[in-house]
């Protein structure tokens, strides 16, 4: 009810309200995780979660959890969801880690069990290769882009060497968000072509 009624505009403290909504999403994610009955119980209300995609990653994480290993993905009219996901991700600054995080959930929407869904693959490929996404696709384009990429790779190599030299293996390799997103984007495009989908490979 809290999510459905969208009470943020009436909330005295927006930050506190969003924290409560975050807790609600975390609960719902656990509620539907690997539970077909609970997944299908929330499925008719899935459109209520779309607007919250702009406020964090949990709305997309919940939607992905609803469809995870759920045969309902094969009958669901996915185009409005895919379009909204592409719009949301394209608006996020490339320096934000959220951009790559949201990309990581996309695989769920084009796969059921061990098989890929060609129609969904093509929809996801089409939306994420539109002109509106070009600024992100060309992140490392041109001389300036190649120089920037070389600097990122040098930093990653340095961090990796430090990681290997650390016997306790407690360090974490921090990848620049721009590079992380670019890798996530390339992985997404490649998944859209899994299974020798000719129409997707041609589009890519």
Characterise the protein shown here.
With 204 residues, this protein is mostly helical. The chain has two domains: 1-74, no CATH class; 77-204, no CATH class. The chain is built from eleven helices and two strands; from the N terminus they run ααααααββααααα. The protein has helices spanning 2-5, 14-32, 36-42, 58-67, 79-91, 97-103, 118-127, 134-137, 142-165, 177-191, 198-203; strands at residues 111-112, 115-116. It has a two-stranded antiparallel ribbon with strand order 1-2. Strand 1 (111-112) and strand 2 form a beta hairpin. Helix 2 packs parallel to helix 4 (58-67), helix 5 (79-91) packs parallel to helix 7 and helix 6 packs parallel to helix 10. The protein is globular, with a radius of gyration of 19 Å. The chain starts with a helix and ends with a helix.
| Rg result | 19 Å
Order of helices and strands: HHHHHHEEHHHHH
**Approximately how much beta-strand content do the residues carry?**
under 5%
Write down how many β-strands occur, each being a DSSP E stretch of 2 or more residues.
2
As for the number of domains, it is 2
Kindly report the spatial arrangement of strands forming the biggest sheet: 1-2
Average predicted local confidence, pLDDT: 82
**Major β-sheet annotation:** 2 strands, antiparallel
Euclidean distance between termini CA atoms: 41 Å
Total of DSSP H or I helical runs spanning 4+ residues: 11
Overall shape: it is globular
- Low-confidence parts lasting 5 or more residues at pLDDT below 50? none
């Amino acid at each position: 009810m809290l999510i459905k009624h969208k009470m943020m505009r009436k909330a005295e403290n927006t930050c506190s309200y969003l924290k409560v909504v975050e807790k609600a999403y975390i609960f719902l994610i656990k509620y539907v995780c690997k539970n077909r009955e609970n997944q299908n119980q929330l499925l008719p209300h899935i459109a209520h979660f779309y607007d919250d995609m702009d406020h964090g990653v949990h709305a997309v994480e919940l939607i992905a959890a609803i469809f995870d290993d759920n045969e309902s993905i094969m009958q669901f009219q996915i185009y409005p969801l895919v379009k909204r996901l592409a719009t949301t991700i394209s608006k996020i600054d490339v320096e934000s880690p959220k951009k790559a995080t949201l990309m990581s959930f996309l695989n769920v929407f084009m796969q059921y069990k061990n098989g890929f869904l060609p129609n969904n693959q093509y929809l996801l490929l089409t939306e994420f290769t539109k002109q509106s996404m070009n600024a992100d696709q060309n992140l490392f384009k041109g001389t300036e882009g190649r120089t920037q990429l070389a600097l990122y790779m040098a930093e990653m190599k340095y961090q990796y060497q430090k990681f290997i030299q650390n016997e306790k293996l407690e360090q974490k390799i921090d990848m620049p968000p721009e590079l992380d997103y670019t890798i996530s984007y390339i992985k997404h495009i490649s998944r859209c072509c899994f299974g020798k989908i000719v129409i997707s490979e041609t589009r890519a």
